[in-house]
Amino acid sequence: MYRTHTCGELRIADAGMRVTLAGWVQKVRKMGGMSFIDLRDRYGITQIVIDESASPGLNAAVEKLGREYVIQASGLVRERQSKNSRISTGDIEIMLEKLDVLSPAATPPFTIEDESDGGEELRARYRYLDLRRNPLKRNLMLRHKMAQQVRNYLDSQGFLEIETPYLIKSTPEGARDFVVPSRMNPGEFYALPQSPQQQKQLLMVAGYDRYFQIVRCFRDEDLRADRQPEFTQIDCEMSFVEREDILTTFEGMVKSLFRNVLGKSFEEPFPRMPYSEAMDRYGSDKPDIRFGMLLHEVTSIVKGHGFAVFDDAPYSGAIALPGGAAYTRKQIDELTEWVRRPQIGAKGMVYVKYQEDGTFKSSVDKFYTGEDLAAVASSVGASKGDMILVLSGEPAKTKTALGALRIELGNRLGLRDPMVFAPLWVVDFPLLEWDDETQRFYAMHHPFTSPKPQDLPLFYSDRKEDLARVCADAYDFVLNGTEVGGGSVRIHDSKVQERMFEVLGFSHEDAMARFGFLINAFRYGAPPHGGIAFGFDRFCALFGGQESIRDFIAFPKNNQGRDMMLDAPSRIDDSQLDELNLRTTIER
Asked: Is the full-model pTM beyond 0.90?
């Protein structure tokens, strides 16, 4: 064997034992006539000592070592005189007796340390080196631990882990598909699954009443810190259940993860919040409930005072910024420019300072008396020393902008500690979203989400206003302002499913062409069923106290969807194109 122990295994009780270790050279240090090698593997670091009495050949071999050389080192374990409490093996060291270089190494392009001097692009190009660093090692170990705990919990609840195919039929509704040409079927294409939605419903029809899969999914969409073109879901489905059964089961899974991975216990049930309340009070369907600064509608209070911005707006909303009365005009102007950014979309911002002496100062003093502004302050629960920030406009967009401002202020005030966790369920989403550009409804979740039973009369109405009021039997799991999971009770009645396709503008022929296999399957007896999918990468990042998912994925893509290490995607040979019966319009 190349080693008798790992580099993180030996302790003071092993003193006097002869051992063999193997790993990478973290560094070589010289002190007087002695040399020290820090030898590293994924388990830890062990110090190896070469003293003056060592043979000239051994000293010469150590002289030739460089960073990241892979070596095998044998020697005697002894107690260290100068102990190192920062590492688990810090009480011992190995007196080197034999050294073999298993693989020399070129000088790495950046330091393999917790705090590296390599930029993000450089480390992505040499990802296999970046993965040697402790922060990434800890992230992947956390990911492994979470995956094992998910499997253990779901197995204990009677779920079967069943794999579904990666090559499926394209059903373009939502994000763009990645498509794969079929050589054996010229001119036809597979799609990579955005999720195994239809397959898991078919498993319910087949009688496998508790299914799960930790599955790779694919979406061709614009990327950001918490998105990747290929990502992993904890995908689950259950039969003969109602919403309460699903929420109870998977709240148990989340609590199990917190308890067994982070050592945190949640004794009380997770709070539940209707979608309408989340939008009205937080300006988001994934509210961060770790801090206050809630949204308050002030439309009726600010209208009718001659200020056209408020008088002409259908909605005005406000939040109270703690301590904001001390903000300078420069700070307020910066916040105003922040909300005007295109991704926020506000046209401007009005401020009202509630000063320590009980008076008010605002950007609209010309139109409002002190009593008027006191009414605004009272309605938002502001205290002396606070500043009230008001946005106006179309209700949905203005609430969303206020919600984004709330999160930004929470970040600036240090109110979003990543290791403080506040889980909740958001429920009662609208079933449908109207799009003015295409003049049609779209499914807010997906076309297989069931309307709430009490809303079925509205669902069969021909009036747009009635359809817009239909609630979905759907739910999202939200953690610290991030949507981690989402699901719904599914449609299991073929007539209701056909009505959904009709509302979404699919002809019978189009619906059958896209989803005929599912519609036909329902004709043979479909049980009531529902499920949920958790974004596993996001879950891991949140448990690790980070926003970006990239460092919790072994080989991620960059913002352009490129693998910098493999230089993918890349062109393929003309011969491959010919074999696939493809032509490209891009000049080669």
From this structure: yes
